[in-house]
Amino acid sequence: MNFKDLFNKGANCCFAVVFLMCLLMSNQMNAQAVTLEGTVKDAAGLTLPGVNILEKGTKNGASTDFDGRYKIKLSNPKAVLTFSFIGFKTKEVGTEGKTKIDVILTEDSNSLNEVVVIGYGTSKKSDLTGAVSTISGNDLKKVPVANVAEALTGRIAGVQVTSSEGSPDADIRIRVRGGGSLTQDASPLIIVDGFPINNMNDISSSDIESMTVLKDAASTAIYGSRGANGVILITTKSGKDGKIAVNFNMFYGMKKMVNEIDVLSPEDYTKWQYEYALLSQSGTKVASDPSSYTKYFGNWQDHDMYKGLKGNDWQKQIFGRTGEVQSRDLGIRGGTDKLNYNFNYAHYDEKAIMIGSNYKRNNLALALKSKITDKIDVGFTVRYSDTEIDGGGVNEQNEKSSSDSRMRTIVGYAPLPVAGLTSDDVSGDGSDVLVNPLRSIYDNNRQQFRKNFNMLGSFGWELVDNLKLKVDLGLDNFNTLDYRFYGRSTYYVANAPVGPLQGMPAMIMSDGKEKRFRNANTLNYDFKKIMGENHHLTALLGQENITYTTNTVTSTIHGYPTFFDFEKAKNLTTQGTPQSIDNYYSPDDRLLSFFGRANYDYKNRYILSATFRADGSSKFLEQNRWGYFPAFAAGWKISEERFLKSKTWIDLLKVRASYGEAGNNNIPVGQQVQIFQSTPTTWINGVTSIWAPSKTMPNPDLKWETTVTQNIGLDFGFFKNRLSGNFDVYKNITSDLLINFPVPGSGYDYQYRNMGETQNTGFEATINVVAIEKAKYGLNFSFNMAVNKNRINSLGIMNNFGQATGWASSQIGDDYLIALNSSLGSMYGYKNDGRYEVSDFDYVGGKYVLKSGVVSTATTLVGDGSSLKPGDMKLKDVNGDGKVDLNDKTVIGNYNPKSSGGFVINGNAYGFDLMAAFNWSIGNDIYNADKVEFSTANASGQYKNLNSTMADGKRWTNLDPVSGQLVTDPVALASLNANTTMWSPYMRTAIFTDWAVEDASFLRLNTLTLGYTAPQMFTSKLGVSKLRFYLTASNVFVWTKYSGSDPEVSTRRKNPLTPGVDSSPYPRSRQMVFGMNLNF
Question: pLDDT tens digits for 92-102?
Fold first, then answer.
């Protein structure tokens, strides 16, 4: 073969090879040009906008539009697409041979990649080293309540939420891990979009994106002086890129009173009134007119006419109306990559179950965010709330006397009409007990207006790559206008006014203004370009300045015309006599802070975090002004180690530990120096002055209260996160407690001092289980529990001191004890030993004389040793000295539960969804003051009705039902009471014993919701992306042994040292609402 032939053959072969390569490349080019499209939906069939789609192993990606549609050009016909979206499980899908793929993503509320809001920043859930819990805004919205704080009940381990009573404006008590402060408010710091607020009363749940609770010092130390009792971070909704999205939500419902106090029937009531009159006539207790019974009820011989009568149910007349609740909110969200926005309007309106009690609130919010350039962005948020409260609760905490509690007159009122006794006019009998309940409602009226205006602005600038400056400015104005009316039947007008104005209607008007300004400047830097792939370091430096001012003007007017009611008194103030105009202007509360944080991780395996904050507060003088609060935390993701990488069933296994300090300066301003207040009449050294010194002694040595927290935790996620949760153990020690210390004999009432130490140790657990997870149906559970043990380690120079709730004025005295090595909330009283029987006495000369060796309670019960008799309450001689006196008072109960928590069941199937939320508490006691009040008839208690524990046949009686005379013969008296167990209600004074302390452990089905989401094939034709209807029942049932109206109650809320008192509360109600969610 010559060279030419060889060349030709080679050329042909080359041509063939080139042709084949071109053909292959052409096919490859055609393959690269393949475009894939589809739609992404959730398990309910609703489209998901903003889902990220990434071709695995490349940077080629796309995202779904507002209708959930996507389109992507593939670089490989055998590519694998990854679909990811916050709150949903990531899904991988092969594309070979496909041109269209529709994907269904399932929810993953415990996603390890979920972004969690922390102090001045965010973090992936799996990277947290502190004790942090979150709840989404969607979960909060599922609980239809007036105060969003109630929606936290039973949802987060270590967070205890208690409503003071059942009124729509009831105070909500929140404690994180028990709280550390003693005499000061132990509520957590609440932050909304970086701005501190006092409470959640005026926030709409429809405007909340998420809520995060920071529980240990590693998480809270970044807030320094304000984080000692925990921090709640609320993030409101912001705009999102994409088409305009409109959502409308509404519900309407009804509510009814659940429980009421059982009282005596007309027959038992009148029988007791007759016995009371005879006992008072016998002369051993109180002097009373023996005709006090017959002038109202007739002769005893006619008593049969009261048999079988049905009594007036005054509780039902006052609280028995069908309450109505309605809510509407409208949200509009959308924008572009340059400007996005979110607008929200919410209206809540409740006609409560009590006559005259109503609650209305309107909320407006607008959030704008603009990306000016690739490096600069700005944001602006404005919020406004307008709240009107009519009637208020039945147990106000700022009253001159608890005698003006509405429930007291309702329960104690006569169960039948009696001429001359039961009347709207209280002047006939002169008793302050038998005030007609309707009259009490109108005479104890109140109206409040609250307006809150909040503006927030932010400026962000990426100065260089990964270095970002952020400036936040905020202004918050909060105004309250409070009208409190006292009619003729109130204790106030009978005692406070003097001279001819006494007994005439009065009003107190209070106008309060609060203003808070905040500026925060932060620098964030990510060292990722410097540290390499295995190391990740971020740093934060910041400075913050907060100024808070308050000013309250209170006007008191007495002597309105006797026929004036609330509206007349409010609108015609000139018809009364002005008594005083008090101006309470507090000095500015200023806080200057510097802080920093560094987070480091190695190979996403070993995590370290350090935080430091320095706070300077105007509440302390220069030598003690600055507080320094460091914190350190470490985490180890064991699941990222090589020896566990092969264990595909382990998604996360992380241990973490933290140590940190946080502070508290939650005392009134000006306690370090002498302050004055303006008053109308003040005498100083014989000279009239418009200024009066404060009743609190100044203390120039005041300093920060500090809490040291140690925490060890374990986070886990198994079986593709179908089983996840965390466990935490902690120890918190709060020292240099800010205590309001009594200083008798000094001319002052109190002085704030740093003294004492408290300790909280506990365990928390949260477990989440995804039992069933299918495209059309699913079932999951979440469970949390907490155990917290509180102890007082030191009280400075004291060993103990008592606190009086005051619900019975001064009759009972101190009924709580704060003592070394005990816990806060210790109830202090006598131990009940039943009653004195006839066998405890010798009957000598027509008188009962206590036998030798039988303990006498005469000093405590009747004030002298000669008047004890069979049927009187018997108390235990605790110290064994043969008598019962103040030295026998002891701790008889405690408010703190041994454990508490909650669990939630969520299920869905073919468009239907079901949610049941429970909360529970074990081992907590409640001080049932109503039990004492309405089982005691003392000198001022004639004609007052009693509770059913004192019904005839249950209580001790001295009355012969045949003759209508008092029985004195020992044998006959013992026989008469052989089948009764209770003592006689006839006592000189109310006595607090362990009989009134009850185990209030409970299990409550707090919320039950059944919903249905219409199929998208139907709603899409209407231009609707989601249409859901639901029914929600609240306070469905409570399983408890507690005999009071509800085991979750704390009416003496003004004093943090006396929690868990059930004294004449506004009853709780059961609620049923129907609602709709509509998205466009």
Answer: 888 887 888 88
Residue 305: count other Cβ atoms within 10 Å of its Cβ: 12
- Strand ranges for 439-466 from DSSP E: 446-464
How far is residue 319 from each of residues 258, 350, 523, 806, 966, measured CA to CA in Å? 10, 14, 56, 25, 39
Residue 116 tokens read as 């969690």
Provide the β-strand partners of residue 584: 552
Residue 838 lies in a domain: yes
How far is 534 from 527, CA to CA, in rounded Å?
12
- C-alpha 188, offset from chain centre: 10
How many DSSP H helices and E strands does the chain contain? 16, 55
Query: Can you tell me the mean pLDDT for 400-414?
Result: 69
Backbone φ, ψ for residue 973 (5° rounding): -70, -40
375 falls within a domain = no
Q: Evaluate if residue 325 carries a pLDDT over 80.
A: yes
Q: What is the distance between the alpha carbons of residues 1048 and 1062, in angstroms, rounded to a whole number?
A: 9
Number of other residues whose CB lies within 10 A of the CB of residue 552: 16
Residue of 1066, 1070, 1011, 890 lying closest to 166 (CA atoms):
1066
Contact (Cβ atoms closer than 8 angstroms) between residue 87 and residue 111: yes
* The model's pTM: 0.84
Query: pLDDT (tens digit, 9 = 90+) per residue, 849-861?
Result: 999 989 998 877 7
The enclosing domain of 90 has a CATH number of 2.60.40.1120
The strand pairing partners of 773, in sequence order, are: 778
What are the pLDDT digits (tens) for 162-207? Answer: 887 788 888 788 888 887 777 677 788 888 888 787 778 788 888 8
- Across 1016-1044, b (16+ Cβ under 10 Å) vs e yields beebeeeeebbbbebebbbbbebebebbb
CA-based nearest residue to 393, from 421, 357, 360: 357
Domain end point (choices 63, 79, 105):
105
Residue 842 in any domain: the answer is yes
CB 742 within 8 A of CB 749: yes
Separation CA 155–CA 158 (nearest Å): 9
648-660 average pLDDT score: 91
DSSP character at residue 274 = H
In the block, tokens 């962000």 appear at: 460
Contact assessment for residue 101 and residue 44, using Cβ atoms and an 8 Å cutoff: no
Is it the case that residue 288 has pLDDT exceeding 60? no
Domain that holds residue 879: 834-888
C-alpha 93: how far from chain center: 45
Q: How many CA atoms lie within 13 A of 337 on its CB side?
A: 3
CA 892 to the chain's CA centroid? 26
Nearest to 591 by CA among 183, 223, 231: 223
Q: How many domains does the chain have?
A: 2
Residue 86 lies in a domain: yes
720: left (phi over 0), alpha (psi -120 to 50) or beta: left
Q: How far apart are CA 1042 and CA 1024, in angstroms?
A: 49
Strands 195-197 and 52-55, bridge-based pairing: unpaired
Q: Which of 75, 105, 135 is the last residue before a domain boundary?
A: 105
Q: Distance (Å, rounded) from C-alpha 263 to C-alpha 933?
A: 12
User: 190-199, 765-774, 1064-1073 — which is least confidently predicted?
Assistant: 190-199
Kindly give, in sequence order, each residue whose CB lies less than 8 Å from that of residue 252, ignoring residues fewer than 6 positions away: 324, 325, 326, 1073, 1074, 1075
Q: Are strands 696-697 and 750-754 parallel, antiparallel or unpaired?
A: parallel
Question: What is residue 310's DSSP assignment?
Answer: P
Alpha-carbon dihedral angle through residues 132, 138, 143, 148, given to the nearest 10 degrees: 60
**Quick one: which of 211, 214, 234 has its CA closest to 224?**
214
Q: How far apart are CA 932 and CA 380, in angstroms?
A: 55
Structure tokens at 1034: 């609240």
401 backbone dihedrals φ, ψ, rounded to 5°: -150, 145
pLDDT digit string (tens) for 871-904? 999 999 999 998 899 999 999 999 999 999 999 9
